[in-house]
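Continuing the batch. This is chain 6 of the set; chains 1 through 5 are on the previous pages. Same settings as before, nothing changed between runs. Recording input and output for traceability.
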Amino acid sequence: MKRGRTIIIILRRVRLILYIGLAGLASYWLIGRYRIWLDESETFTIQSITIEGNELLTDQEILQLAGYSDMTRIWKMAPPDVADKIADNAFVEHVSVQHHLPDRLSIQIREKAPIALINVKGSIFCIDREGLVLPSVLRKRYDLPIISGDFKGMVQVGSHARGEAVHQALTFLTEIRRSMPELFGEISEVVVGHQTGLKLFTKTAAIPVWLGKNGFDWKIRCFAAIWKELIIQKQRKMVRYIDLRFRGQVAVGMRT
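Output for chain 6:
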C-alpha cells in the first residue's frame, strides 16, 4: 500500500515537472515570436520624428547623429543611446529623447549659445563663453557684443579660439552678463590685444572704457555705478572715456 502511494507521488511529480518544462518551452517560443514581431512588425517602424530647439544643426544632421535610417524600428533607438550620440556633437548643450509608442520619437535640443561675436579679419563668427566658435544662423540678427583686436592663432568653426586676450574678454562678458545683465546690453565692442588689457565701447555714445587685465568683479560694479549716475545726470554724451585699469582709481574724462 505504501509502495503504491510512493509510486503515485513520484508520477505526479514527474508530470508536474513535464508540465513546467512544456510551459517553459512554450513561453520561450512565445517570447521568441514576440521579439521577432517587435523587430519585423511595421507597427513599430518609426513614422514620425519631431525635432525641436535646433538652429545650428539641421534636422538631417541630428538624424544622422542619432543613427536613424528608413524602416528603423522604434526599439532600435533607445532614448539614452540616441541622446548620448547627439550630445557628442560640440554644438549641443543638452538633449532629451522620448519614445511615443508605437511609431513616434521626439528629440529636444538645447544648443550652445553665443555670448559674443568675434571679428577676425572682417569675418564675423559666433563664440560661446568657453571660447567655442559656433556657426552663424543665416538671416538671424545677433544683438551681442563684438570681440575684436589682435588674435593669435586661427579661428575656425567647431574649434576653440586660442589666446589669453580672447579668454579675458570672454571671462569679462560672462561675469557682467551674470551679475549685471542690463549693463551687458550696453556693450557694443570689446577690443583685445592691448598691452594694458581690455577696452570696451558702449552702445550709447561709443564711450571707450579701459578695463585692464583682471579684477573684473570690482570693475563691473564700479562701471555700473558710473553708468547709472551718467544716466541720472543725462551726461553720457559728454563723456570722452572711463578708465578703470587700476583698482581703487577711477578716471572719467569729460568733454569741454
